[in-house]
Amino acid sequence: MDKKPSHENYENMPDEQLVRLSLENQDCFYYLIKRYEPKILRYIKRITNISKEESEDILQEIFVKVYRNLNGFNQKLKFSSWIYRIAHNEIINQYRKNKSYSSMISLNIEDDDVNNMAGLFRDSFDIQDNYISRENTEKVREALEELPDKYREILILRYFEDQSYDEISDILRKPAGTVATLINRAKSNFKKIAQRHQLESLI
User: Fold this and answer.
1) Residue ranges making up the domain that contains 14
2) Domain check: are 122 and 68 in the same one?
3) Looking at the domain assignment, is residue 39 inside a domain?
4) 147: CATH
5) CATH at 52
6) Most buried residue, 78, 119, 151, 157, by CB count within 10 Å?
7) From CA 65, how far away is CA 60, in angstroms rounded?
8) Is pTM beyond 0.70 here?
9) pLDDT 10s digit of each residue in the chain, 203 long?
10) Which of 42, 34, 32, 38 is nearest to 156 (CA)?
């Protein structure tokens, strides 16, 4: 957008207030894009195996749909959950359209992501050290990639995107109890796969 509001407070406004202002003045939507563009692009990259150009195309389509549907945003929901839901749905739509995507989920993550996950999994898997060696980082990545899609994505949302159970419930449109069950099953499945990858020291 060429014209950007100059009001510095816009950058510190709550999402929901920016949504209301964007409905009155489309220039305000720039600040929502600025706030969420890096997060959503990172999410796309984490759960797809597509190129940078294709990721950016999907990102653009997501923001087009976000803007077109602002009127339908339920103020009772968190905007962050709502935009992640749109992103989730758009990624699935693009996967169905483009069969050249060899897998809907193929971890395109950095070593730091896996190390962060180790810290988050500490309580569940008794990980003794936040740092994972480079060799084990690749094993963790391979273990995650063996998970069924529904388990893999829910772990990404919980441990990589740092979404709460309630937020994941909103994103996937599943009851919070179902989300908790899926996360527990995903962690249990990951633990079994990790053992096959000789990651006993991490679990």
Assistant:
1) 8-97
2) no
3) yes
4) 1.10.10.10
5) 1.10.1740.10
6) 157
7) 9
8) yes
9) 445 545 667 888 899 999 999 999 988 999 999 999 999 999 998 888 788 898 999 999 999 999 999 999 987 779 999 999 999 999 888 877 775 444 444 555 565 666 656 555 555 554 444 445 556 667 777 777 888 888 888 988 998 888 999 999 999 999 999 999 999 999 889 888 877 866 655 55
10) 42
